[in-house]
Structure formats: structure tokens, C-alpha cells
Amino acid sequence: MTVIPMFPNPIVGFVCLALIFSIYRRIMPRPIPGIPYRRSAVWTPLGDVPAMLESIKASGGQLWMWVTAQCEALNSPIVQLWIHPFTSKPVVVICDFREGQDVLMRRTKDFDRSQFFGQVFLPILPYHHISMATTEKMKNQKRLLSDTMGRPFLEDIAAPLIYGTAADMITLWRGRTELAKGRPWQAPFDIYGVALDAIWAATLGEHPGTTRSQLQLIDRLHKDGFSVPANKDQEVEFPHAKRPDPCDAILKLTSLMQIGITSPVPKLSYWWELRKRDTKKALAYKDKCLNDGLEEARRKFEDGGEKGSRINSALDHLLRKEMALAQKEGREPE
């Protein structure tokens, strides 16, 4: 009987064993000395993923409750976790406010933006500086937007738009209160709507109409009549008007960011989600709104900007500033 060795050549066998050991070392968690961690996590290439997913499922998609619980369980303001499978490097979590504030505000040369932001925002906002490392490109991009946080822009442009959306919400609530006749009703849906209206208006200079569509529905209920429960302590459930297309698109895209937060394999999860029809539709609508806004602002401020042209939004301000800089530096606007 002839025995065939597993590795005819001892060198091949040694190389294969070395390769297997190298892969094993790369996929197994390797703790940073001195930082507490869950002992069970370092014995599996999945790390903390099974415990994390179990907690997320039980809490309805809440990741940070589990993260906070690890600090409490290990009795330490700093812990290390392995929230992605087959990854040797841990994520270091600091739950101490003063240390976190010091890292974020005074030690920016020592600590750059975490890759976690890229996992969350990059697939939805590929060109936003929130997911960029500190480079000249990121700094230039932030300079373009810096004036939108200044007092002149906030007072002269953003404040009137935000005031208008808040006034719409107050009118809506008055209408709901009259229909409810002293009974309680839920308000979170309206608050989300007015927040979206305010941000959209300040960014693009126009209202998506989320709150106003609800106002039109309340007006119809006043005319047609609306029945309320006999018990004054029972909650009134108001019908909601169909959300405008901008609202649907933005809510769809913002909900996708939860994938980057809770998924152990965010790139794969995003890859699958971005191929769905409703996600493609939302992305296309978002791009269309931005491109239309940019084109309108470009026509308004072409040739360096007209003196009589008024800035009505953050998009107007950004484009006018970029066109002026490009003209000064002798280049095409980016």
C-alpha cells in the first residue's frame, strides 16, 4: 500500500502552515495592553459581534446602549471592542466626558477623524468632508462652508427661513388642538417635518412643503368634519398627508445611515442596499435637487456674481464664494 504524504515537498508544507498561521493572527482580536476588554471576545474571530448583534436586536437597533453597557460592565471609562468580524484591531471607546472633549477639541493633531464616519456617511455623501481625513482638500472644503456658521448668514438668511417653518408648525398645532378639543395627540411627526423643512430651506432656499402639506390636510378636516374619542383622556390619532418627494428621499437616505452604525459588515450591507430600486430612486432624486440648485445658483452668480443678486441659501453662498475664488486664482470653479 502506497502512502501519499499530505505535502510532497516539506517546504510547501511549511509555507502553507506559515500562511495559515499568518491569516489566523490577522483575523483574531489582539488587545491593546492596559485597556479593559471582554475576555470572551478575544477567543473568536468574530470578536464582540455576536453579543453586539444580540443587544441591537433586543433594543430595537440601538448600538450605543450596548457600548455604554460595556463600560459599566468592565467598570472603566475606556474600553476596547471588536465590532467588526475578522479584524485584529479594536475600536477604543472613551466614555469620560472631559477626556472625550480634550481629544475632540484640543488634540486634533494627535487624533484624526475616525474611519467610523466613513462607514456611516461615505456611501450616501461621498464628497462631504465629514468622512474625509485632515487634508488640504478637506480644509479648503470647510473654508467654503465656514461662513454659513457665522452671524450674518444665520441672521440674514437662515433665521427668516427657520422662522417661516416654525410659524407653519404653530399654525398646524393650533389646527390640531382645535380638532382634538382638549384631547392629547402625538407631535413627533410634526417636529421631524419642520426640522426637515428648516434644514432644506436654509440649504437650497426653498421649502419642500412637509409641514404645509399637513396644514392643507388639517384645513380639509376642519371643513369636512373630524370625529374624536368620547374619552377626553384618550389620544387622538390624526391622519397624515402624503409626504412630498424631497421629504421621502431624505428620510430614506438618512435611515440608511443606521446600516453603517449597526452592521458588522457595513460595506457589504451598503453594497446590497444601494442596489435596491427605492434606494436608487432616492439617490437620483437627491442628486437632481442638488444639481438643479447648483445650476440655478450658477446662472445667478456667473461672471463672478452680480451686485444685485441676493444670497438666499447656503448653496448660493457656497457657489458664489467658489466662483469668486476661482476667478481670483485664474481657474475653473470646482
Q: Which descriptors apply to this entry?
A:
about 325 residues; mainly alpha; two-stranded antiparallel sheet; 13 helices; about 60% helix
What does this structure look like?
This protein has 334 residues and is an all-alpha fold. The chain has 13 helices and 2 strands. The protein has helices spanning 10-27, 49-58, 64-74, 97-106, 115-121, 136-146, 151-180, 188-204, 210-224, 245-262, 266-273, 277-301, 314-329, and strands at 78-81, 91-94. α5 runs antiparallel to α10 and α7 (151-180) packs antiparallel against α8. The model has no long low-confidence stretch (mean pLDDT 84).
Spatial sequence of strands, sheet with the most strands: 1-2
Cα end-to-end separation: 75 Å
Rg, alpha carbons: 27 Å
The number of distinct β-strands equals 2
Shape by Cα distribution: globular
pLDDT averaged residue by residue: 84
In sequence order, what are the helices and strands, one letter per element? Answer: HHHEEHHHHHHHHHH
Contiguous helical run count: 13
Write the layout of secondary structure elements.
Elements: H1 10-27, H2 49-58, H3 64-74, E1 78-81, E2 91-94, H4 97-106, H5 115-121, H6 136-146, H7 151-180, H8 188-204, H9 210-224, H10 245-262, H11 266-273, H12 277-301, H13 314-329
Antiparallel strand pairs: 1-2
